[in-house]
Design brief:
single chain, alpha/beta, six-stranded mixed sheet, four-stranded antiparallel sheet, 10 strands, 29% strand, globular
């Protein structure tokens, strides 16, 4: 598979007085087009910092990040914002949905952000929300709301979806339904997925697991994907 994102010797350093903390400590990594990559590790290990830097939400202290062969680590804030808007989708533990809009309208907001848009009805079918399109957020379960956030991110047709603990606020049954939606999106639309989690069971749904500790990649494992229904939880 063709490389989509490439990190070369990336550092992210925070200073407090004379004390330096390396949130990322010389990370090099390739993400292939169409992959599902799981970033796994305990709190404070660097996994969210890795996601934030490779997605342009945060800048690096040193090192280089390339997206589709173009270096983005030297972009200005304005250029990074434009890059994220045109190329990337984000899903977080908190849904950040608009309560006064229904499902369809929330997804439409995402579509208006994109450079090339997806068909909203197709997306709603893909994540299993077509029958709920006229409902408002207070009428939906937590899992359904998270699927709305997935659909909203997909509506602008991102090349990569970055997911930071997307099932962190959900129970096992609901969390697995959300993971099934992410896999279906990857398989039907070819969207590259980078998923941050502390849950080792979730690591089994990906093509590759990147284990982080103390700002470093300590292990990288490739394996066959496991159906979310069959993974252990917690």
């Amino acid at each position: 598979m063709e490389t989509l994102i490439k990190l070369e010797n990336v550092y992210k350093t925070y200073r407090l007085g004379e004390i330096e903390t390396h949130a990322l400590n010389g990370v090099s990594l390739d993400i292939k087009k169409g992959e599902i990559v799981i970033i796994l590790g305990a709190s404070g290990g660097g996994k969210t910092t890795l996601l934030n830097t490779m997605s342009g939400l945060d800048t690096v202290t040193s090192g280089k990040i390339y997206y589709d062969g173009k270096e983005i680590s030297n972009f200005s804030d304005h250029k990074l914002t434009k890059f994220r808007k045109q190329n990337l989708g984000f899903i977080f533990q908190t849904y950040n949905l608009l309560e006064h809009l229904n499902v369809y309208e929330n997804v439409l907001v995402g579509a208006k952000l994109g450079h090339t848009k997806q068909n909203i009805n197709m997306i709603l079918k893909t994540v299993g929300l077509k029958k709920h399109e006229k409902k408002y957020m207070h009428e939906l379960s937590g899992g359904e709301q998270q699927r709305v956030s997935i659909a909203r991110a997909l509506a602008k047709n991102p090349k990569v979806m970055f997911c930071d603990e997307p099932t962190g606020a959900l129970d096992e049954k609901t969390g697995k339904i959300v993971l099934e939606s992410l896999i279906e999106v990857n398989e039907k639309l070819g969207t590259t997925m980078v998923i941050v989690t502390h849950n080792p069971g979730i690591a089994l749904i990906g093509d590759r697991v990147i284990k982080m500790n103390s700002g470093k990649i300590v292990e990288m494992i490739s394996h066959e994907r496991t159906n979310p229904k069959d993974i252990p939880w917690g």
